[in-house]
Amino acid sequence: xxxxxxxxxxxxxxFFDKLPVNYYVTKGNHDMVSDxxxxxxxxxxxxxxxxxxxxxxxxxxxxxxxxxxxxxDLDWLKLRLEANTKxxxxxxxxxxxxxxxxxxxxxxxxxxxxxxxxxxxxxxxHGHEHDQDGIKMIESVPYMFDSHIGGSWGTTYKGFxxxxxxxxxxxxxxIMNPIEKI
Length: 182
Prior knowledge:
With 182 residues, the chain is of the alpha/beta class. Helices cover 20% and strands 25% of the residues. It has 4 helices and 9 strands. It has helices at residues 7-16, 35-42, 74-83, 109-116; strands at 48-52, 55-59, 89-93, 121-126, 135-138, 141-145, 160-165, 171-177, 180-181. The strands form 2 sheets. It has a 6-stranded mixed β-sheet with strand order 1-2-3-4-6-5, covered by helices on one side. Strands 7-8-9 form a 3-stranded antiparallel β-sheet, with no helix packed on it. Strand 5 (135-138) and strand 6 form a beta hairpin. The longest helix is centred in the N-terminal third of the chain and has 10 residues, at 7-16.
């Protein structure tokens, strides 16, 4: 959300609060603030869950106040996945990719083993890699990248990923730049 400067976090929230939709945030490696300050500003912890009907969104931090690249809290994630076995769809948001698909990722095989145990996980979303806007598949789960909406490196455009859950429960996804469908 910010680039290392703690003072910008509350300012960013003022901007986000103007959005006409609900939003959720997850901490990235440049959000160099304590977990307590993160919760104070956003009103949600660094690991949290949101529900929309019979769908669950899990947001898990993959960094700390020092900006280290970390695995998500797998114990927390396991508990939340087990608590949501009856959810029709589960979507997971993390910042740091957990497979060495890219230069700035880490290897966490246990993360993928956990995901494989839950057939209602419909997608895992990543930030961090501003030059990535594709999808990596592991079995039937898409691991999606959305490039970036800000920053000074990465793709030539500042876009975002749209994911539509259709009436037949299939997923349609594409990148917007910012008003052009890619």
